[in-house]
Amino acid sequence: MSEHVLIRGGTVVTAEHEVRADVLVSGETIAAVGPDLDAPAGARIIDAGGAYVMPGGIDPHTHMELPFMGTVASEDFFTGTSAAAAGGTTMAIDFVIPAPEEPLMAAYQKWRGWAEKAACDYSFHVAVTWWDQSVHADMETLVREHGVNSFKHFMAYKGAIMCDDEVLVNSFRRAGELGALCTVHAENGELVWTLQQQVFESGITGPEGHPLSRPPEVEGEAANRAIRIAEVLGVPLYLVHTSCIDALEAVTRAKLEGQRVYAEVLAQHLVIDESVYRDPDWDRAAHHVMSPPFRPKHHQDALWAALQSGMIQTTATDHCCFCTPQKRAGVEDFRKIPNGTNGIEDRMAVIWHHGVRTGKLTPSEFVAVTSSNTAKIFNIFPKKGALQAGADADIVVWDPNKHRTISAKTHHQNIDFSIYEGMEVVGNPAYTLSRGRVVYDDGQLNTERGTGRYVDRPPWASFWAAQKLRNDLSKVSPVERVLPTAESEG
Ligand code: URP
Ligand code: ZN
Ligand code: ZN
Ligand code: ZN
């Protein structure tokens, strides 16, 4: 690996602007961005040839090698971050998910061990799945000593990792004391549970039962509940995988009232609709079983509009792969199909093709929603999500004219299916650099096990100051009164 890389002749795109400039990488960081930079002796020169040069993608929502629903996700931290690099994504924020009663610190250490094989940088949200004083204490240890600044709450998956309102309230309050951001998977788990039994008992046992048991109202209710709990407690909130108008309405209402709410959308919810569950081929239908499920088409238009208008700030994949034999655990009962779909390799191209090439997003907006906004919300900007001197050299050289037909036969993801099978996308990476290493080199994947690093995310992102000021200004003081006594006149 040469110590210097000069990316010459491209258009640098950041969330702020587009400019013709060269980019000089020294070791693991960006040394300079500017016109006509000189190449140091021995530098590798990449001719960008008019392509775009952008911050590498950050996927804020992945599940590598997750133990879930009786099996383990097939994609591990090495294969998953390698596939990410092939698609222009250079960092993933994955999830530590402790089983109920499992100490948070023990789960965290376990996931850190699994992730040592990663080929690109990564970090962890930690899920709060239960509550007691040890959880209260471990949250502080994670924030103060282990670079965790976000906690996840599953409002669904009853009987497994679901949290009730008591856990939500305790955890949101604690996160507020620590300067950490709460995130939620918003679905009313009690309703999902009831509907699952009803649908199954009505004789619907196949994957088409999955969306019937998780209608948009179930997501809308939970989104609104989490948002209102956060409002009352005076903490910001981040909604993962917002998939429907019902949840968007809750987000929009809160934002228009001035509440600090962030929302994420998955690339797949923007382009795939619920008709997939009626596929006569059981395997194909089952491969789309994820939560929240794919929705009727009109929800997609609303999600795009929300992304364009800034109601949604980030895009993710929820990359959680299960191969066909794993999905078949639910062949007689849709409730047993492990939930999850692929996509870390495809997010950038799918959003470019369907977003930038249709005039919904500018290239700068694309950078914002695929990288910079996530870096800002999770407080790692400008080390990540920026293309400027001093930033980590996580870079993608993006060829807007490169065609690719997505297929499980050619992708790098460790899954025997692709939810995007046969989709042609125009706009793909030519080169990807991960902290200065050229890990995707003109079609050749050169990732190495263990070269990815854990990224510490400090608490008290800049939005907290505003949140606290708002909380202080809305404090109500008691009324000073002379209290009546038994003798005073009534
Ligand atoms: O179906 C999904 N999304 N599986 C992964 C776990 C989650 O809910 O994010
Ligand atoms: Zn989820
Ligand atoms: Zn998830
Ligand atoms: Zn073509």
TrEMBL record:
GO terms for molecular function: dihydropyrimidinase activity; metal ion binding. The keyword Metal-binding applies. Residues 52-439 form the Amidohydrolase-related domain. Pfam families: Amidohydro_1 (PF01979). InterPro entries: Amidohydro-rel, Hydantoinase/dihydroPyrase, Metal-dep_hydrolase_composite, Metal_Hydrolase, Metallo-dep_Hydrolases_sf. Gene3D superfamilies: Metal-dependent hydrolases, Urease, subunit C, domain 1. It is an enzyme of class 3 (hydrolase). Belongs to the metallo-dependent hydrolases superfamily. Hydantoinase/dihydropyrimidinase family. This is D-hydantoinase/dihydropyrimidinase.
